[in-house]
Design goal:
Structural class: alpha/beta
Number of helices: 5
Number of domains: 2
Strand content: 25-35%
CATH topology of the largest domain: Rossmann fold
Distance between the termini: 39 Å
Order of helices and strands: EEEEEEEHEEHEHEEHEHE
Largest sheet: 6 strands, antiparallel
CATH architecture of the largest domain: 3-Layer(aba) Sandwich
């Protein structure tokens, strides 16, 4: 057993991390429509219910399909639920042009469907011992999903291992594409969370306009790069542009992390 000392001062006994080895079966128990083309699938362990493994916000599950279009195929999807939501684990899937597996999941998954998965895997996570106290997240479209998990975990001001501040710069095409909008609005009321949202396909006075590029990033940061760790998730082109801009601005490469997403 491990011990940790939370802000309240009382010693708490931490249970060992739960790991489920090999391929497990997850049953879909609820489907949430996020936008016109994005759905969140809540799943539980098909044998005993609930979420039977521990994970860090930002990690992913790998799913295996043995008879997908006549062949075996595997795809990884970021966990969009928070480790604080212990009754289920969820992934958020966007229907997109060329999204072979994502489109199949969006069109065919139903309550009661069982998927084979393994995990949780990945190191795209905030670490208070390694990272700076201000976590600055940059996302486009469904790339926001790992950050929804991270924000949900760390929004409570006394959350264990939380950054002192969090910022999210996220790009969507139109107002119809705002994944997690209701939650993000609520989060933005907290003093330690800052939301910067830009639309690329239409204009709205409430939001910024245009793709995330060096100019937009510089506008949002206003030269304030000290004390920040940057995590990026979205299209490769966007992440390359943002990474280059951050390096040019003097950000240490060790404080920039990127994550791609599956289709």
């Amino acid at each position: 057993m491990n011990f940790f000392l939370p802000k309240g001062g009382a010693i708490v006994l931490a249970r060992p991390k739960r790991v489920k080895r090999g391929w497990m079966k997850l049953r879909v128990v609820a489907i949430v429509s996020e936008t016109h083309d994005t759905r969140t699938f809540q799943m539980v362990d098909a044998e005993v219910g609930g979420c039977q493994f521990d994970y860090h916000a930002g990690q992913y599950l790998t799913f295996r399909f043995d008879h997908f279009e006549g062949r075996a195929i595997a795809r990884s999807y970021t966990i969009s639920s928070s480790p604080c939501q212990q009754d289920f684990v969820s992934i958020t899937v966007k229907r997109t042009v060329g999204g072979v597996v994502s489109n199949w999941l969006y069109d065919n998954l139903h309550e009661g469907a069982v998927l084979r998965a393994r995990g949780a895997l990945g190191r795209f996570c905030y670490d208070i011992d390694r990272d700076h106290p201000h976590l600055f997240m940059v996302a486009a479209g469904s790339g926001v999903t790992p950050f929804l998990s991270i924000i949900r975990q760390f929004m409570p001001s006394d959350a264990r291992g939380a950054p002192q501040e969090m910022s999210l710069l996220v790009s969507y095409r139109t107002r119809r594409d705002l994944i997690g909008w209701q939650e993000l609005q609520a989060f933005a009321k907290a003093a330690h969370f800052h939301l910067h949202l830009t639309l690329t396909g239409e204009r709205d006075r409430r939001f910024l306009h245009g793709r995330i590029n060096a100019a937009l990033l510089n506008t949002v940061l206003a030269g304030r790069i000290a004390g920040k760790t940057f995590m990026l998730c979205g299209p490769e082109a966007m992440m390359q542009i943002v990474t280059a801009a951050l390096l040019d601005a003097g950000v240490d490469a060790e404080q920039i992390r990127t994550e791609s997403f599956s289709t």
